[in-house]
Amino acid sequence: MEELIELDHKLFLYLNNLGSATWDWMWIAISNKWMAIPLYAFLLFLLFKKFGWKYSVITMIFIALLITCTDQMANVFKDFFMRPRPCRQEGVTQFARIVAERCGKYGFYSAHASSTFAVAIFLGSIFKKKIPGLIWYLLIWAAFVAYSRVYLGVHYPGDIIVGAIFGTLYGYLLYLLQQFTLNKLKLV
């Protein structure tokens, strides 16, 4: 386990130090959850346009449940494992580029990675028949958001990978539950 943690630290320092002050503003913006509002608004528009209001309202409830689940489960893991973030880890901070203005206490696993991958899988699965390639764009967006956390110095790559795995799992499970519910309501 210690070798894995050491590898995670080395990979973090490598990826984090690829950054440049020239691009810091962009990665800060990508990591900012409020910057995704135009994307969410566009996806919401597509949802209503392609599926109608009943389907969309129920889907919005599932999205709220999904975001709550991914965020809260990440907090449970952070409190359980108490793994310091790189921006608080002695022996790492002096070699890293810490770009983030704020740095939480614990980082395992990344709620940003979990939430964005969950939304990408959930909505990508919903739109798979109507807009088949959309899932790939959403996954690329999720990967950029996840990497931004390493770039800013607030998560190790392992935090991101585990967050993405859990997000993918939550996104798919909530998609199945949403489809089951819509079938029961005869909206599919």
Brief synopsis:
Helix content is 69%, strand content 0%. With 188 residues, it is mostly helical.
Structural notes for this entry:
- The protein has about 190 residues and is mainly alpha-helical.
- It has a single domain, classed as Up-down Bundle (Vanadium-containing Chloroperoxidase, domain 1), CATH 1.20.144.
- It is about 70% helix and about 0% strand.
- The longest helix has 29 residues.
- The radius of gyration is 18 Å and the shape is elongated.
- Pfam families: PAP2.
Biggest sheet record: none
The CATH class is identified as Mainly Alpha
The structural domain count equals 1
Instruction: Kindly provide the radius of gyration, computed on alpha-carbon positions and rounded to a whole number of angstroms.
Output: 18 Å
Any low-confidence stretches, pLDDT <50, length ≥5? none
Distance between the termini: 47 Å
Task: Map the helices and strands.
Elements lengths: L1 H15 L7 H8 L5 H15 L1 H29 L29 H16 L7 H18 L5 H28 L4
Helix pairs in contact: 2-6, 3-4, 4-5, 4-7, 5-6, 5-7
Which key phrases capture this entry?
188 residues; mainly alpha; Vanadium-containing Chloroperoxidase, domain 1; elongated; PAP2/HPO_sf; PAP2 superfamily membrane protein; transmembrane; PAP2/HPO
